[in-house]
Amino acid sequence: MLWYILKLLLLLPLLAGLVWGSLWLTRKMQARMVAPGGEKAARLVETTFLAPGIRLAVIEFRGREILVGATKQGLVRLAENDPYAARRQVMPADTREWEMS
């Protein structure tokens, strides 16, 4: 019985230290995973709750807004919008020629 308590007193702090160390290392590595320049490539713009386990999310990725349906089974891309496309279509034809060259 004494041997069991001695092992418990030695291994329990060791196990707690390993858990704490792995959490600390994970947090430190996540900070390094940020894209150069400190800005992430994807940004969550908005989420909407539809039903239990079903959400709609708008994600901005490289200047495009993507509407995604999120369920317990996975993600489905529903629509995609380029916010700069409307500006390109409104431009007069003569200014487009200057931008292309």
List the helices and strands and how they pair.
Elements lengths: L1 H31 L9 E10 L2 E8 L2 E7 L4 E7 L3 H6 L2 H8 L1
Antiparallel strand pairs: 1-2, 2-3, 3-4
Spatial strand sequence of the major β-sheet: 1-2-3-4
Estimated structural class: alpha+beta
Please, how many helices?
3
* Uncertain parts: none
Instruction: Report the order of strands and helices.
Output: HEEEEHH
- What percent of the residues sit in helical stretches (DSSP H or I)? 40-55%
Radius of gyration: 25 Å
Described by the principal axes of the CA atoms, the overall outline is elongated
Sketch the major β-sheet. Answer: 4 strands, antiparallel
Q: Any idea how many domains? A: 2
Number of strands: 4
Mean pLDDT: 82
The rounded distance between the terminal residues' Cα atoms is: 85 Å
Q: What proportion strand?
A: 25-35%
